[in-house]
Specification:
By secondary structure, the chain is of the alpha+beta class. The protein folds into 5 domains: 86 residues, DNA Primase, Chain A (Alpha-Beta Complex), CATH 3.90.580; 133 residues, DNA primase DNAg catalytic core, N-terminal domain (Alpha-Beta Complex); 115 residues, Dna Topoisomerase Vi A Subunit, Chain: A, domain 2 (3-Layer(aba) Sandwich); 41 residues; 162 residues, DNAb Helicase, Chain A (Orthogonal Bundle). The chain is 53% helix and 10% strand. The chain has 25 helices and 16 strands. Strands 1-2-3-4-5 form a 5-stranded antiparallel β-sheet. A 5-stranded mixed β-sheet has the order 13-12-14-15-16, with helices on both faces. A 4-stranded antiparallel β-sheet has the order 6-9-10-11, covered by helices on one side. The chain is flat and about 90 Å long. It starts with 5 loop residues before the first helix and ends with a helix. Bound molecules: zinc ion. The site of zinc ion has 8 residues, from loops.
Length: 612
């Protein structure tokens, strides 16, 4: 891929006024020096989406999405950064120079493949209502899918022929080479011969978030192998980045999304009125898919088949979803049925009951362990306790932890003290890193999470404010900022977003570049959450501190970090002593002394500078 020159990017940005561009998508209203609108990225009744013409930035105070004009187009049009630059360049009529041609080609190719896919989807869909589609219609009826639902999902039928789609598309003047790139036809052995990939199959068109047809799934009617055949990877279709049914999901945070394995599960659920299921297309969930889910919801209910493969997929999925900070529950349907089978047999109400009783991931993990063991044998019981300690040590909240300890005691007569003691030990050993567990939702509730972990409100508020002031100073005063950045390290920033923003700044400085808002935004363009938080920071109002205060801020942020770290370690030492873990306590104490020495040095430094 060819990258645009910095000057070209600047030129595009200066001509593509953010107010003009955004107003093509939403209707903006003037409010003071800014414009507001209903947010295009989440559903709301009162406008919290704000555009600043002076800063050329947007930020939504409802969902926390923000950035410059490129970020807006990337998100709205689902484009990468270079694609967004090109998109805007074309829109404002800027000529794209020679060396940008290769990018132009890939962009054009994508557009052409979307178009081919759309024509193919229409072709397949029409087949379904033609005479030749009778077999397919019968099959759908047998699976309990109504015509209305088939219409809703634009289901189709690939004729039992080697070239019906090929002929249809070439008659529309599309070159075979291009159709091959869409994955719909395959070159034959003889030069110049081609055949259709999908033959005599029910077709499930796959759409992306924006409703583009990106690929297809085809299921055999009756017997045959493979049961399901998908489009290969193409410029618009990458397995593991899409979720079937995502185009039908609306953003409703209070309702979770149900994650299922197959097309039929999504469709069955939708038909019975549960319109919030997506399929991962293949058994293992990827990080990209988890990130996509996170954009829509805070809770995911995994409803995979509970055969061995399904169980393993569930376990892997759990990890990946947890990494994204999602709440997870696991639905285990009786008799190992999948959602489609279950719905056909027992109906919607029974399914919703099951949904209501879906286990949270701790319960699920504990049950999984227990099933493998015979708790009447003491060897097995010991094994189970060890596993349980591992599982419970992942819980941050003490009340929740105690809840499970109590349950294990009641269910399996595992003495509470044994568990408590083992857990304390494990948790003390486990947390060498200073900082806080991060959840994606953090940037929305500001420092709520941190406050919960530390009773000292003033300290926590101070940390949050100082970190942001430092970042603002680095942006506002590039010269002094550069020097200050060298004195700092990401470790001093306790908030994950701040850490990321600072790392981006430090990278720029190391490359010898001047720190500007846009460069930092560009560096963060792959991380929507951090980029949005950075925009918020820029829009939070003017930075009032003077340039000479930068060094003070640097000292302060280091002090804050040390204060917080020392406090955490002190608590750990206390805990270690209570349960008689003296070795751990001594190690922690050594670490504490080290931090204290650093703190003293800082104090001396700040005294030299005239106090803080
Ligand atoms: Zn929003």
């Amino acid at each position: 891929m060819v990258f645009f020159s910095e000057n070209f990017i600047k030129e595009v940005q200066s001509k593509a006024d953010i107010v003009d561009i955004v107003s093509e998508y939403v209707s903006l209203r003037r409010r003071g020096e800014n414009y507001v609108a209903l947010c295009p990225f989440h559903s709301e009744k009162t406008p919290s989406f704000t555009v600043s013409p002076r800063k050329q930035l947007f930020y939504c105070f409802g969902c926390g999405t923000g950035g410059n004009v490129f970020n807006f187009i990337m998100k709205k049009e689902n484009l990468s950064f270079p694609e967004a630059v090109r998109f805007l360049a074309e829109k404002i009529g800027l000529e794209i120079r020679e060396n940008e041609e290769s990018l132009s080609d890939s962009f054009k190719l994508k557009r052409e493949i979307y178009n081919i896919n759309k024509m193919a989807a229409e072709f397949f869909h029409e087949n379904l209502s033609r005479k030749e589609g009778e077999r397919a219609r019968e099959y759908l009826q047998l699976r309990g899918i109504s015509l209305k639902t088939a219409e809703e999902f634009f289901l189709g039928y690939a004729l039992p022929s080697w070239d019906s789609l090929f002929n249809y598309l070439t008659k529309k003047d599309i070159s075979p080479e291009l159709i091959v790139k869409s994955g719909l036809i395959i070159p034959g052995r003889q030069k110049g011969s081609y055949y259709d990939r999908f033959r005599d199959r029910i077709i499930f068109p796959i759409k992306d978030v924006y409703g583009h047809f990106v690929g297809f799934g085809g299921r055999v009617i009756g017997q045959g192998e493979p049961k399901y055949l998908n489009s290969p990877d193409t410029p618009v279709f990458t397995k593991g980045t899409l979720l079937y049914g995502i185009d039908k999901i609306t953003r409703e945070d209070e309702k979770g999304i149900i994650l299922v394995e197959g097309y039929m599960d999504v469709i069955s659920l939708f038909q019975s009125g549960i319109n919030r299921a997506v399929a991962s297309l293949g058994t293992s969930l990827t990080e990209a898919q988890a990130k996509l889910l996170r954009r829509y919801t805070e809770e995911v209910v995994i409803a995979y088949d509970m055969d061995a493969a399904g169980r393993n997929a569930t376990l892997r999925g759990l990890e990946i979803l947890r990494e994204e900070g999602l709440n997870i529950r696991i639905l285990t349907l009786p008799e190992g049925k999948d959602p489609d089978e279950f719905l056909q047999k027992y109906g919607k109400e029974a399914f919703e009951n099951q949904l209501h009783n879906a286990k949270n991931f701790i319960e699920y993990l504990l049950d999984q362990q227990r099933e493998k063991l015979d708790l009447n044998k003491s060897v097995d019981k010991l094994k189970f306790i060890k596993k349980a300690v591992q599982i419970l040590s992942q819980i941050e909240d003490e009340i929740e932890r105690n809840f499970y300890i109590d349950r294990l005691y009641r269910q399996y007569e595992i003495p509470k003290n044994t568990l408590l003691k083992a857990l304390h030990k494990k948790r003390i050993e486990d947390i060498p890193e200073i900082g806080f567990k991060y959840k994606n939702s953090q940037f929305r509730n500001n420092n709520k999470e941190l406050r919960e972990q530390s009773p000292n409100k003033a300290l926590v508020n101070g940390i949050f404010r100082t970190e942001r002031e430092v970042l603002k100073a680095l942006i506002n005063y590039p010269e002094s900022g550069k020097k200050a950045a060298y004195k700092l390290s990401p470790i001093y920033f306790l908030y994950k977003n701040h850490k990321k923003i600072f790392s981006a700044i430090l990278e720029l400085v190391k490359k010898g570049e001047v720190i500007t808002e846009d460069k930092v935004l560009l560096a963060l363009s792959k991380d929507e959450v951090a980029a949005s938080d950075f925009t918020k920071l820029l829009m939070e109002g003017e930075f009032i501190k003077k340039e000479e205060h930068i060094e003070e801020l640097v000292l302060k942020i280091k002090q804050n970090y040390l204060k917080f770290a020392m406090k955490q370690i002190k608590e750990k030492i206390k805990k270690a002593e209570t349960i008689g873990e003296y070795n751990t306590a001594i190690n922690l104490l050594n670490y504490y002394q080290k931090l204290r020495k650093e703190m003293e040095l800082l104090k001396e430094e700040s005294a030299e500078k005239g106090g803080m």
